[in-house]
Design brief:
The complex is a heterodimer of chains A (about 300) and B (about 300).
Chain A (H helix, E strand, L loop, with lengths): L1 E8 L7 E10 L1 E9 L5 H19 L7 E8 L2 H6 L23 H13 L4 E5 L6 E3 L2 E5 L6 H4 L6 E5 L9 H7 L3 E6 L8 H17 L14 E4 L3 E5 L4 E5 L6 E2 L4 E6 L6 E6 L4 E7 L3 E2 L4 E7 L4
Parallel strand pairs in A: 3-4, 3-5, 5-9, 7-8, 8-10
Antiparallel strand pairs in A: 1-2, 2-4, 6-16, 7-9, 11-18, 12-14, 12-17, 13-16, 14-15, 16-18
Helix pairs in contact in A: 1-6
Chain B lengths: L1 E9 L3 E10 L10 E6 L7 H15 L7 E5 L4 H6 L23 H13 L4 E5 L6 E10 L3 H9 L5 E5 L9 H7 L4 E7 L6 H17 L14 E4 L3 E5 L4 E5 L5 E3 L4 E7 L4 E7 L4 E7 L3 E2 L4 E6 L5
Parallel strand pairs in B: 3-4, 3-5, 5-8, 6-7, 7-9
Antiparallel strand pairs in B: 1-2, 2-4, 6-8, 6-15, 10-17, 11-13, 11-16, 12-15, 13-14, 15-17
The chains are: A alpha/beta (about 300), B alpha/beta (about 300).
The structure holds zinc ion (ZN).
Zinc ion binds next to loops of chain B.
């Protein structure tokens, strides 16, 4: 394993800001794995740290196949991590909305530029990321529909689902989008939440990355062959929104099967405790995303359901 | 008349709504124009609060001069204004990146869609922003070159020092102004001052422009003041100066405006070492229209924008 510094920025009174990378094997730029870009993506950083552990062992055992180089960047944003902020400490800019960045641009733009320059040219790129709304996803791999994506590759992670989604204007500033435009097969992996470590989800995520690297002939590793993924698109997902506000008691979690008309949860008056309303499922399917904050406002997206899918 | 545009129930016994003040002539003389003034998309930008107040006050003082409709939307991000934060709280989302929104979307998108719908049919939309706490902006109008032809007459009439026509390559889709222009509703963006503050003199300067534009549109028949000739600057005519290393920026200027080549704009210092690490000088004669306000800087932070060439 070789450690490298990808970007340094002097602080005024803080230690220099540094993006660190960990390199395994040597030769072709085969795979690059990127973790947290926001200061609260603890789970995402944790998963990368466990991948670093696994790759260290594999390298010691001589199980990184010749002529393959793997780079892991567990965290692009230690400054935000250390102060408990999601975005850049001084001006609150979102690093994962500043790609492709500019070498002579503003601060986050310089960081994203340096990271993108370093991670360009790898065949496969994997990023662990998170959603802007509080909630849990079914573990899945995402690709953006840029015209360069390949769903069949995403299948090789062995996660139960692969989501292909159309980029919105705001997505064009993410690493994933710009990575794909640069010619890398880029995947985003959703595994667990944010601020708490979900050991199970992390283990699955590490396995899915190792499985992918094995199938691509980059490492030698024996593990469970995983799932044959169901590929879903935006239009397969049905959003369920709250028509009332209050305390939310959901009774479904990601992966649960729901029937048409089934009660998915209740909205309670926050003071008197009575049930103001129930949310019933508009479709038969499987829960893909579940809101997990006990307070909800009107219009909150409480579930996303993969429609008409049976277990 | 105050009208509610959209409302959403918050979790604990509170409703959140966005509202507008609708001003219309006493006697409906048939065909007339409609101007919409929008502000408070960013909760930390407050100059628009005074501007909205003053437009309403002046119209109420002389309702006989009003010959068209004026809609004023003072707080598109009401929670942000209340909490003195830029983004939409809870989501930490920049509201000016989600237009045209979605009627079925979550709060921010739903509000964006309601606003877009309500603004539709306006003859002009002016989206009033202040700067943030980091840089100070001279009153200016920003125009996407893609829509220049349609809005330039209004932009020049706004009594600002600068009209900045920026390249459409750098334009952000999903802003309010971009969305309205795309829908065929002329829209311009006003920028001024700094965040969390109201600069009354600059607001009054902008108000002169607003009433001038209202007169041009046939909405205001009362007396208006002369407007200044704006300097029109384009991509390639603006020098952007950023700091090279992290430190503390100390301005040597008393304000924005004309500079000569080589003039000292400020210094970036390292307090503990008692030394200057960067002297910021004007690269050419010109006009400073953006200047660093918040002193602590990281490499890459914006120090100044200077319109190049001779300024008369
Ligand atoms: Zn603004």
């Amino acid at each position: 394993m070789n450690k490298e510094i990808i970007y340094t920025l002097d602080g005024l009174y803080r230690d220099p800001f540094q993006v660190e990378g960990f390199r395994f094997g040597q030769g072709n730029r085969s795979a690059c794995i990127v973790g947290a870009s926001r200061g609260n993506e603890i789970q995402q950083m944790y998963i990368c740290s466990q991948i670093v552990q696994a790759l260290k062992r594999l390298e010691e055992q001589g199980d990184i196949v010749n002529e393959n180089e793997i780079l892991v960047i567990p965290c692009m944003n230690p400054y935000s991590m250390n102060v408990g902020k999601r975005f850049w400490p001084s001006d609150n800019q979102d690093l994962n909305r500043s790609f492709p960045g500019k070498a002579d641009g503003e601060v986050v733009s310089r960081i994203s530029h340096a990271v993108l320059e370093r991670v360009k040219g790898y065949n496969y790129g994997m990023q662990f990321t998170s959603f802007y709304m509080p909630g849990d996803f079914i573990p899945h791999v995402r690709m953006m529909e840029t015209g360069y994506q390949s769903a069949s590759l995403a299948n090789l992670f062995g996660t139960p689902y692969v989501l292909i989604r159309k980029p919105k204007p705001i997505d064009t500033f993410t690493l994933n989008y710009n990575w794909q435009l640069s010619g890398t097969n880029a995947f985003s992996i959703y595994a667990g939440g944010l601020e708490e470590i979900d050991e199970n989800a992390a283990k699955q995520a590490v396995s899915s990355v190792l499985r992918f690297l094995t199938r691509m002939g980059i490492i030698r590793y024996r593990n469970h062959s995983g799932y044959i993924a169901s590929v879903i698109h935006d239009e397969d997902l049905m959003s369920v929104q709250a028509n009332l506000a209050g305390l939310w008691k959901g009774c479904k979690k990601p992966g649960d099967v729901v029937e048409y008309g089934e009660v998915l949860g209740q909205i309670l008056d926050p003071y008197e405790g009575h049930v103001k309303g129930e949310i019933v499922s508009p479709t038969q399917g499987i829960v893909f995303f579940a809101h997990n904050d006990p307070l909800i406002m009107e219009n909150t997206e409480i579930y996303r359901i993969i429609r008409r899918m049976h277990e | 008349m105050i009208k509610e545009i959209a409302s959403i129930e918050l979790p604990v016994h509170e409703n959140l709504s966005i509202r507008k003040t609708h001003l219309a002539p006493f006697v409906d003389g048939g065909e007339h124009k409609r101007l919409s003034l929008v502000t408070g998309i960013h909760g930390d930008e407050l100059d628009g609060q005074y501007i909205v107040y003053e437009v309403i006050r002046r119209v109420q003082e002389h309702p006989e001069y009003l010959a068209g409709e004026v809609d004023l939307y003072p707080a598109i991000n009401p929670l942000g204004v209340d909490m003195a934060i830029r983004a939409i709280p809870m989501f930490d989302l920049d509201m000016n990146r989600i237009f045209p929104g979605s009627e079925k979307g979550v709060m921010a998108e739903y509000f964006a869609a309601a606003l877009t719908g309500d603004l539709y049919g306006s003859d002009l939309v002016i989206d009033i922003h202040s700067s943030n706490i980091y840089v100070q902006e001279l009153p200016q109008i920003r125009v996407n070159e893609q829509f220049e032809e349609r809005v330039m007459e209004y932009a020049r009439g706004m009594n600002t020092d600068i009209v900045w026509v920026y390249s459409s390559a750098n334009a952000l889709e999903a802003t309010l102004a971009y969305t309205m222009n795309t829908l065929g509703v002329p829209a311009i963006v006003a920028e001024m001052g700094v965040g969390h503050r109201i600069n009354r003199a600059e607001c009054n300067q902008m108000l002169t422009g607003i009433f001038h534009v209202m007169q041009t549109m046939g909405i205001w028949t009362g007396p208006v003041e002369e407007v200044r000739t704006s300097l029109v600057t384009r991509e390639g005519e603006v020098s952007v100066i950023r700091c090279e290393n992290s430190g503390v920026f100390v301005s040597h200027r008393s304000g924005l405006g004309a500079v000569s080549q080589g003039e000292l704009i400020g210094e970036i210092i390292l307090p503990m070492e008692g030394r200057v690490i960067q002297e910021v000088r004007a690269p050419h004669d010109g006009f400073v229209f953006t200047l660093r306000e918040h002193p602590v800087v990281y490499a890459g932070d914006l120090i100044a924008r200077i319109h190049g060439g001779m300024y008369e």
